[in-house]
């Protein structure tokens, strides 16, 4: 393959801001832009792929997340399909386990990806160490490549022209109410903190459903609906929340709150960097390696009685800090290396596979 040839990628998914930034058409090109094929489990099959994304139309499959929305047996069939058609697989380990359901399938998805992937990328060294410890030595050494920006610095600068940073505004991006996010206790403790009595909390979430799949009322959603009536709560709720709406919300905020119950890496931390936000986050992931300026509160010891005090202290620490500046041009420089790292990974895999 010549140096100037473009490598075509089947990106799963492709429309998330983390992935879409690689689809610049120079060196790397997605054949399935603006899609998340894992959310359509009825169509994601050999027949579907052969019809819409035949093997000859791409060089590499890059899997990121959402794969746990596909039934495990169907997911393995898809991996076998890629292998049968000699399509190298790259897996970026964004999360050690499903963020929707704790211990979902007991890590079988990750085990399959470790087995089938030709190359594994980890955004942090500690996650790479975890993978080696839990799954053994991979056939190819794991590559550590940071996540990089979530909102392009030029877009951030443009949006920021009409937005003023509010030191009395915190934001919590809840999204689709995944199980790994705590959104009751954290809001209550925020509202009860006297030092934050001038501060408003902006909540971003998809439409509330107070019923579970069996038609029974979910108590936590009823409590949430009651809490958000508070005068210091502002809400943004849409079925599909545009990325620019989220970016604007972060740009206006002094800090963002990430009350994760479990996790690994966070794109919200990267967006907070982009938008000059302090971050208050639990210590369940490798977040400190992503950004050493975050404000952690301790939860790993499972001393639940202490959680409210620790969390509130972290909020106060962030509130007392001076506002942060936008990350700016340094994110462009950082991304150039991240892009080239991906390009070199792709080239090396193709070169290696062509020798077999």
Gross morphology: globular
Give Rg in angstroms. Answer: 21 Å
| Strand segment count | 12
- The whole-number mean of residue pLDDT values reads 95
Low-confidence spans: pLDDT under 50, at least 5 residues? Answer: none
How is the main sheet built? 6 strands, parallel
Span of the ends, CA to CA? 15 Å
SSE string, helices as H and strands as E? EHEHEHEHEHEHEHEHEHEHEHEHH
Number of helices: 13
Task: Describe what this molecule looks like in 3D.
With 356 residues, the chain is an alpha/beta fold. Helix content is 37%, strand content 16%. It has a six-stranded parallel sheet with strand order 2-1-3-4-5-6, with helices on both faces. It has a six-stranded parallel sheet with strand order 9-8-7-10-11-12, with helices on both faces. Helix 3 packs parallel to helix 4 (108-116). The mean pLDDT is 95.
List its traits:
single chain, 356 residues, alpha/beta, six-stranded parallel sheet, 13 helices, 12 strands, 37% helix, globular
Brief sketch in words of this structure:
The chain has 356 residues and is α/β, with parallel strands linked by helices. It is 37% helix and 16% strand.
